[in-house]
């Protein structure tokens, strides 16, 4: 779980746009972030396996 203070700090508008930190909207994790879904890989995998993300299916070959 991410620190509450860092999550709140990341939500604020930065002085310069290059300082913006992408964080997962669900858990606040800064690493493994996917822009298209605005969440980290951990939350993405959990929601995708539950079928809560439309158009995403588990791949197998």
Automatic annotation (TrEMBL):
Q: Which GO terms describe its molecular function?
A: rRNA binding; structural constituent of ribosome; zinc ion binding
Query: Which keywords accompany this UniProt record?
Result: Metal-binding, Ribonucleoprotein, Ribosomal protein, RNA-binding, rRNA-binding, Zinc
The highest taxon in the source lineage is: Bacteria
Q: Does the keyword Cell division apply?
A: no
Pfam families this protein is in? Ribosomal_S14
Membrane-crossing residues?
Answer: none
Q: Which GO terms describe its cellular component?
A: cytoplasm; small ribosomal subunit
Q: Does the keyword Transcription apply?
A: no
Gene3D superfamilies, per the entry: 30s Ribosomal Protein S14, Chain N
Can you cite a GO biological process for this protein? translation
Residue positions annotated to bind Zn(2+) are 24, 27, 40, 43
Which InterPro entries would you find in this protein's record?
A: Ribosomal_uS14, Ribosomal_uS14_bact, Ribosomal_uS14_CS, Ribosomal_uS14_sf
Q: How is the cofactor bound?
A: Binds 1 zinc ion per subunit.
Cofactors named for this entry: Zn(2+)
Q: Which family would the database say this protein is a member of? A: Belongs to the universal ribosomal protein uS14 family. Zinc-binding uS14 subfamily.
Among PANTHER family, the record links this protein to: 30S RIBOSOMAL PROTEIN S14, SMALL RIBOSOMAL SUBUNIT PROTEIN US14M
Which NCBIfam families does the protein's record reference? PRK08061.1
Quaternary structure per UniProt?
Part of the 30S ribosomal subunit. Contacts proteins S3 and S10.
As for what it does, the entry says: Binds 16S rRNA, required for the assembly of 30S particles and may also be responsible for determining the conformation of the 16S rRNA at the A site.
Q: What is this protein called?
A: Small ribosomal subunit protein uS14
Organism field: Sediminispirochaeta smaragdinae (strain DSM 11293 / JCM 15392 / SEBR 4228)
What would be the name of the gene that encodes this protein?
A: rpsZ
């Amino acid at each position: 779980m991410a620190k509450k203070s860092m999550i709140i700090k990341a939500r604020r508008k930065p002085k310069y746009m290059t300082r913006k930190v992408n964080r997962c909207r669900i858990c606040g994790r800064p690493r493994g972030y996917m822009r298209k879904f605005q969440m980290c890989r951990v939350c993405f995998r959990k929601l995708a396996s539950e079928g809560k993300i439309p158009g995403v299916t588990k791949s197998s070959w």
